[in-house]
Design brief:
The complex is a heterodimer of chains A (592) and B (271). Chain A is mainly alpha-helical. Chain A has a single domain, classed as Up-down Bundle (Cytochrome C Oxidase, Chain A). Chain A is built from 15 helices and 2 strands. Chain A is globular, with a radius of gyration of 24 Å. Chain A starts with 27 loop residues before the first helix and ends in a 68-residue tail after the last helix. Chain B is of the alpha+beta class. Chain B has 5 helices and 10 strands. Chain B has a 5-stranded mixed sheet with strand order 3-2-1-5-8, with no helix packed on it. In chain B, strands 4-10-9-6-7 form a 5-stranded mixed sheet. In chain B, helix 1 packs antiparallel against helix 2 and helix 2 packs antiparallel against helix 3. Classes of the chains: A mainly alpha (592), B alpha+beta (271). At the A-B interface, helix 3, strand 1, helix 8, helix 9 and helix 10 of A face helix 1, helix 2, helix 3, strand 7 and strand 9 of B.
Chain lengths: 592, 271
């Protein structure tokens, strides 16, 4: 910790930057469509992700209708049900959350928050979006293909994923899914390299790594993880395509399907699971770490207080990222892998609870002795903490190998991962949109609509997923088209299913209020000004709002302090922007 | 201030729901009461943490909500407090992990006197194979599966000739005798799941997986498939009946052996 008394540090002179050509767009097409401006690309990513996410939302309605009222809706047969759950899961995890956090928030916030003019490779950045769009279109094409999309479950476990007992297994469905993932990963790699290199090479003068806002730390670390984890999924997809199309047997042992001997032999279905979860577990944190980072900044800004334990927060992000590469087989405790692995993976999994708990403590301790403004971003941050703590704690059940045995493959798992990587990160997404919308558009979102959206979404989602754990405890398996007559399932469980479905419909409908707010406020929202939240970080200090191409006008910003100088004793205001030289108030910046 | 009230209600409501909910695990029918105990320990520890964190947060929001003239404290970090919380968490985690690993060790250590019972799955049917008088199961192979030999038992392995084969029927087990459940699939992944036994394990084509348990009470229980196996997944049901020893013997004697199964099918071409 360094004490910097007022006026003792010399102001860092601004970098002398030659007037350079920023390759400003020359036409409407290159400005708004084939744009190389990270801010436009961010909006493109976000709109596309939210659009396909709405499809996934409707799919969740359809599957909930089947679970509550089995057989009532003729068009939801077993084939469709499994197609709905598969597409819902894959869209939400990869095409919505990953794309939105990294492609959306990453693109918008990284250059602005580190003080860069743009991503370092703008052209590759533009390609990244267009390839992502192609991946989304290939995925959506599954709905119109003969046989429909794949119904293999989002985990796509072979052999069933490529056999005829699964919808799309011998039709187009699985081929389109695997191709879409391959294309997505290619596109993501182009964006991901950009985010990493921009953070490492594109920071403004004075912006040391340990002065970066936690939002950037979260997105940066998640991107590094994604670049390491997605290749495992990539090869798994290629290998499964070969098994399906070329008759190889990477994942296919000798199989008798419906009485017929297949021409496969010697492959290992478990190999796919290892590859899938070597990607799949880091994926959880690829979604969670940006949310961790963003929520830290929301809490700090709206509680007018520095984030508590900044260094510990950074290290917790890095440690979680590293550990998350050695926990993947906790998804496979009952997969039939060597059971001795259980000791190792249970231990690593439960160790990860410690840095994660530290983050939770530090968020709550940031509130302690703060000056808490109950703005919408703050409300969403509070809701995030509740749902994340809930979902994180149920993870301790599933991570502890022997406790997982009765619970795995039940509705407890569904409730757990929805709470921890569905609801919690989505609440951060909403909080972040309410927080940064004024910077993106120059206008505030409507407060009344925002509060309606907040309360229905937060409480509704909690009421959906909290009771669902108890269905799993009872023993109700997941991925069941209908539970039917089962001796251990009492009629009251069916009543609970109806309640959950009604809540799901309500929460889904509340998102219409949010979408309406996004569009209405674009034209009618209150003018925001450059820094409506009185925040310290660089994106709020741009010369124009919304920021123009190149972000900073002629002079790049120079950074003099960390991102969390809120309520510094002696300072005239309760925040000091990162660009302000060390005058007025004693800051106790934490340095590495 | 609505948010403080709601957060408090949420804590109280969650605890009450847990205590009053009619949805709880099924009465156990196996020796794995240790699993239930570990689960209860986990519920206690995580429940306390959940209540503590959310209540503290609600208190902070109430106590430190913005009022005109307020100013937040400036405290970048507090190493002592952070270390204290981290070590407290580590202790709590260890309190769940250590008993968990202890029970896992028992779970994967099959007692020597456990009788082998094979469960064979296919889309979407359960079959079973029990050792004959020799107490051993014969070798089997997916490649050997044919209409007259649905489980692919090796005809040249004499230990398999007296194996009892139950196709698509119900499985009977004697109460109080440990069993080693050997799991085999002929097509896709399945998972042998009886909630009352607490144990479950995936079945993988090309591999034999296993778990063991001792049935502790008689009764009839549903077998469910717990690993997505195609459109018929939720219809893939079976029944396991835990009998007294005498009833079990009576049932076993009515079942056909592999030799009888072969004799009842088409005449075999001589090799």
């Amino acid at each position: 910790m360094v004490e910097i008394p007022a006026g003792s540090a010399d102001a860092v002179p601004a970098a002398e930057v030659e007037d350079m050509d920023l390759y400003h767009p020359k036409s409407w097409w290159t400005k708004y469509v084939f744009s190389q401006d990270a801010k436009i690309i961010a909006v493109q990513y976000s709109v596309t992700a939210i659009a396909i996410g709405l499809v996934a939302l409707v799919l969740s309605w359809l599957m909930r209708l089947q679970l509550a009222f089995p057989g009532t809706f003729a068009f939801i047969d077993a084939d469709h049900y499994y197609q709905f759950i598969t597409m819902h899961g894959m869209i939400m995890v990869v095409y919505l959350l990953t794309a939105l956090f990294l492609g959306g928030f990453g693109n918008y916030l990284i250059p602005l928050m580190v003080g860069a003019r743009d991503m370092v490779f703008p052209y590759a950045n533009m390609l990244s979006y267009w390839i992502y769009l192609i991946a989304v279109l290939i995925l959506a094409a599954g709905f119109f293909a003969p046989g429909g999309p794949t119904g293999a479950g989002w985990t796509l476990y072979p052999p069933q994923a490529v056999l005829s007992g699964t919808p799309g297994g011998q039709d187009w469905g699985i081929l389109l899914m695997l191709s879409s993932l391959i294309v997505f990963i290619i596109g993501f790699t182009m964006g991901g390299l950009n985010y990493v290199v921009t953070v490492l090479q594109g920071r403004a003068r004075g912006m040391t790594l340990m002065r970066m806002p936690l939002t950037v730390w979260g997105i940066f670390t998640a991107t590094v993880m994604a670049l390491l984890a997605f290749p495992a999924l990539f090869v798994a997809c290629v290998m499964m395509l070969f098994d399906r199309l070329l008759g190889t047997s990477f994942f296919m042992p000798a199989i008798v399907e419906m009485g017929t001997q297949l021409q496969h032999g010697g492959g290992s279905p478990i190999l796919f699971q290892h590859l899938f979860w070597f990607f799949g577990h880091p994926e959880v944190y690829i979604v969670a770490l940006p949310a961790f980072g963003i929520v830290s900044d929301l809490i700090s800004t709206h509680a007018r207080k520095n984030i508590f334990g900044y260094r510990m927060m950074v290290w917790a992000i890095v440690i979680i990222a590293a550990l998350s590469f050695v926990v993947w087989a906790h998804h496979m405790y009952v997969s039939g892998m060597n059971p001795a692995f259980g000791f190792f993976f249970a231990t690593t999994t439960l160790i990860i609870a410690v840095p994660t708990a530290i983050k939770v403590y530090n968020w709550v301790l940031t509130l302690w002795r703060g000056d808490i403004h109950l703005t919408l971003p703050m409300l969403f941050a509070l809701a995030f903490i509740v749902t994340f703590v809930n979902g994180g704690l149920t993870g301790l059940f599933l991570g502890n190998v022997v406790v997982d045995v009765p619970l795995s493959d039940t509705m407890f798992v569904v409730a757990h991962f929805h709470m921890v990587m569905g609801v919690a990160p989505i609440l951060v997404v909403f909080g972040a949109i309410y927080h940064w919308y004024p910077k993106v558009t120059g206008r505030m979102l409507n407060e009344v609509l925002g509060h309606i959206h907040y309360w229905v979404t937060f409480l509704g989602a909690y009421l959906i997923f909290f009771p669902m754990h108890y269905l799993g405890l009872l023993g109700v398996p997941r991925r069941y088209y209908e539970i039917g007559e089962t001796s251990f399932v009492p009629p009251s469980a069916h009543t609970l299913n109806i309640f959950i479905t009604v809540m799901a419909l309500v929460v889904g409908a509340a998102q219409v209020v949010f979408l309406f707010n996004l569009i209405w406020s674009l034209f009618r929202g209150r003018e925001a000004g450059g820094n409506p939240w009185r925040a310290t970080t660089l994106e709020w200090q741009t010369p124009q709002t919304p920021p123009a191409h190149g972000n900073w006008g002629k002079e790049l910003p120079v950074v003099y302090r960390w991102a969390y100088d809120y309520s510094v004793p002696g300072a005239p205001e309760d925040f000091i922007p990162q660009t302000q030289p060390a005058t007025g108030g004693v800051t106790r910046e934490v340095t590495a | 201030m609505a948010v403080v009230l709601i957060l408090a209600l949420l804590v109280v409501g969650s605890v009450l729901f847990h205590l009053l909910s009619p949805w709880w695990w099924t009465p156990i029918a196996s020796n794995w009461t240790y699993i239930d105990s570990t689960l209860v320990i986990t519920f206690w520890i995580t429940g306390v943490v959940f209540v503590a964190v959310v209540s503290f947060m609600a208190y902070c929001v109430w106590r430190f909500r913005h009022k005109p003239g307020n100013r937040a404290a400036y405290e970048p970090e507090n190493r002592k407090l952070e270390l204290l919380l981290a070590s407290g968490t580590a202790v709590g985690v260890a309190a769940m992990l250590v008993p968990g690993l202890f029970v896992w060790d028992q779970f994967i250590t099959v007692p020597d006197d456990a009788a082998p019972v094979e469960v064979v799955s296919q889309q979407w049917l359960w079959s079973f194979r029990l050792p004959g008088v020799d107490g051993k199961l014969g070798r089997s192979e997916t490649r050997d599966i044919s209409p007259e030999n649905p489980l692919g038992v090796n005809k040249n392995d004499t230990t398999g000739l007296d194996d009892v084969i139950v196709e698509g029927g119900e499985l009977h087990l004697p109460v109080g005798k440990p069993v080693r459940i050997l799991l085999r699939s002929v097509d896709v992944l399945h998972d042998f799941y009886v909630p009352e036994f607490r144990a479950k394990m995936d079945m993988i084509p090309g591999m034999i997986t296993y778990f063991w348990f001792t049935p502790t009470r008689t009764g009839t229980f549903d077998i469910l498939c717990a690993e997505l196996c195609g459109v018929g997944h939720s219809q893939m049901r079976g029944t396991v009946v835990v009998d007294e020893a005498a009833d079990y013997q009576a049932w076993l004697e009515q079942q056909q052996t592999f030799t009888q199964l072969l004799a009842s099918g088409e005449p075999q071409p001589a090799n």
